[in-house]
Amino acid sequence: MKICFVISAIETEAIGTSVVIMKKAYERGHALYVMGVGDFIFKQDAPMSFRCTHVKKNLKYKTVEEFWTQIQEDANKKSSYYQRRLRCIIFKK
After folding, report:
1. C-alpha dihedral, 79 to 28 to 13 to 52, nearest 10°
2. How far apart are CA 63 and CA 65, in angstroms?
3. Cβ(2)–Cβ(85) under 8 Å?
4. Whole-prediction pTM value?
């Protein structure tokens, strides 16, 4: 399943429940995307889209800290996607 996590900001997000859930979803083989709340794109007469980072399939890590650091390092490599390409969007308060 393609899962997109929406967090406050990738660059400043602390390691907490959201990051641990991301890691577990990644370990279960889901295609993982991460974006900040400011990465939504709204255009008149067009589907909602967003800019997000696709988490690579070949991450090498031993701890949740190493996992999150690698995602944060790739945060500037964002691509645009339409909503229909992902099945689940998880929002964090």
Report:
1. 10
2. 5
3. yes
4. 0.81
